[in-house]
Amino acid sequence: MIELESVSYSYGGGELLSDVSLQLQSGSFHFLTGPSGAGKTTFLKLCYGALLPTSGRLSAFDEDISSLDRDQMAVLRRRIGMVHQDCRFLDHMTLAENVALPLMVSGRVAGAEQDNLTELLNWVGLGARLGAYPPELSGGERQRAALARAVILSPDIVLADEPTGNVDWEMSQRLLRLLIELNRMGKTVLIATHDLSLIRAAKSQVQARVLRISQRRLQLAGADL
Amino acid sequence: MSGDDFRNLLRRDRRADRVVPPTGFTAHLTLFVSGAMAFLAVFALALSLASGRLADRWASELAGAATLRINAPADQLAAQTEAALTVLQQTPGVASARALTTEEQAALLSPWFGPDLPLDTLPIPQLIEITEGEPGLDAAGLRLRLGAEVPGAVLDDHSRWREPLVTAANSLRRLGWISIILIGGATAAMITLAANASLAANAQIIEVLRQVGAKDRFIAGAFVRRFTFRALFGAAVGTLLGMSGVLLLPEASEEGGFLTGLGFEGIGWLLPVFIPLLGACVAFVATWSAARRKLKELS
What we know:
The complex is a heterodimer of chains A (225) and B (299).
Chain A lengths: L1 E10 L2 E11 L4 E5 L6 H8 L7 E6 L2 E2 L5 H8 L2 E4 L11 H5 L1 H5 L8 H10 L15 H13 L5 E5 L7 H16 L3 E5 L3 H8 L5 E6 L2 E4 L5
Parallel strand pairs in A: 3-8, 3-9, 6-7, 7-8
Antiparallel strand pairs in A: 1-2, 1-4, 4-5, 9-10
Chain B lengths: L2 H8 L3 H4 L7 H39 L1 E6 L3 H17 L3 E6 L2 H12 L12 E7 L6 H11 L3 E4 L2 H43 L1 H9 L4 H32 L26 H25 L1
Antiparallel strand pairs in B: 1-3, 1-4, 2-3
Helix pairs in contact in B: 3-7, 3-9, 4-6, 7-10, 9-10
C-alpha cells in the first residue's frame, strides 16, 4: 500500500531521515517509536504526501508520490486518514461539520451521509456532542473527533501522530481500542508514539510491528518493548 | 476554465462556504473598496455619458449651420444683406438662409449689454443664419463669390471653434472611460491584496483542507465565492448611493450649461446596473488568480 525505497528527507541543509525502506502491507498494524525530534512526524508527513522525499522512491497505492500533481495528491489523501496530535480543527465549525469535512471536500453530499456521520460519532462516543465547537471539547474528545474525521471516508490506511499524547491513560486505552477495531475492519494502521506503555498494552490485543527511528534511520525495534 | 467550472465556482454551497471564517478585516475592506469604487464609477460613467451627449450635440447642431456677418456702413447694410441672401439662395448646399431680426440680434447681445440695448443707434453688423443641406456647403467657394459680390460679408462656418469644443467634449468622454478602467484596476488590486491577506491568515485552514483531501478548486472556490458575493453586495450599495447622488444633481438647463447636464438620460439609467456585475467579475478574477497563486505557494 505504501512503500518506501531508500527514502531520505533533508530540510535546511540537515538530513532528518536517511535511507528509509519500508512496506506497509494491507491490514497491517505498525507502531513507530523513537525519542522526540527523531523524525516520526516527518515520516508520517512523507507517508501522506505533505512532504516529498529528497531522494529515494515513495509510492502509495502503486503511484509514485513525487509524480502526482496537487489534485492527484488530494485524491490520494482521501485514501489515507490522518490523525494529528494537535487535531487541527476549524474552530468556527461545529464538531459534526469538522468530522464531515472530508465528505464535503470530496463532493459527497453530507446530508445523505448524515446517518453514517451520526453512527461514526456514536462509535467514538461523541454522539451527544454534534453541535459543540472544537474549543469546547476536552483533549480526549478532540482526539476521538480527529479519529472520526480521519476514517469518515473509509480510508485504506490510518496514520496517527501521537494520538494519546494529550490524554490520560484511560482515554489512551479507549483510543487504542478504536484503532485496533479499525485494523480488524481491514484498515492498515500506523501509530507514531513515544509512549512505550501504549505499545505494550496493544501487543496483547493485536499483532503489531514496532519500528523505531533512531539516528535518522528506521529500524525494527528489539525485544525491550 | 470551462463554463461549467465557472458556474460550479459561483454556485452557492452554504456548507462548503463555511470553511472560510466569515469575519476579519478583509471582509470589511472588500465591502468598503467595492462600495467606494462603485460610487466613483457611477460618477465617472455619468461624466462620460454627459460628455458624449454634449460632443454629439455640438457636432450635429453646429456642423449643419454657418453664419454670415455683413459689416457695412448703415446706408449699404440692407442692400448688401439682400445681395448676400440672393447669393446664398443660388449656392448649392445651402438649405435655407435667413437674416436675423433686430430682436434676435438684441437677444444674442443681451448677456453682455443687458436687455435694453438700443441696437438702432449702434453700428451692429447684420447676421444671416445659414442652414446647410445636401451636398454640403463649399465654404471656400462661397467666400470667393461673396468677396466679389458682397464686400462686407464674412462667412463663419463654425469650424474654428466647433472642432476644439467637440475635441474637448470627446476628451472628457475618454477621461470618463479611462477613470472607469482605472477604478476597475484599483478595485482588482485592492481585492487581490485583501484575498492574499485572507489566504495568508487562513493558511492553517488551507492545510487542514488539503490534509482531508480538498482539491485546489474546492479551496479556491470557497474564497472566490466569498469575495465575489461580498464585492457584488458592496458595489450594489455603492452604485445605489452613487445613483442617488446623480439623481440629486441639477437637471440640464440652458442657464446652467454643461455642469447641469451631468446625469443619466433615458436608457442611460440602466447602465449603472452593470457596475456591481462588473465589480463582481473583477473580484472573481482577482480572487481566483490570487488563490491559485497562493495555493501554489503554500504547497
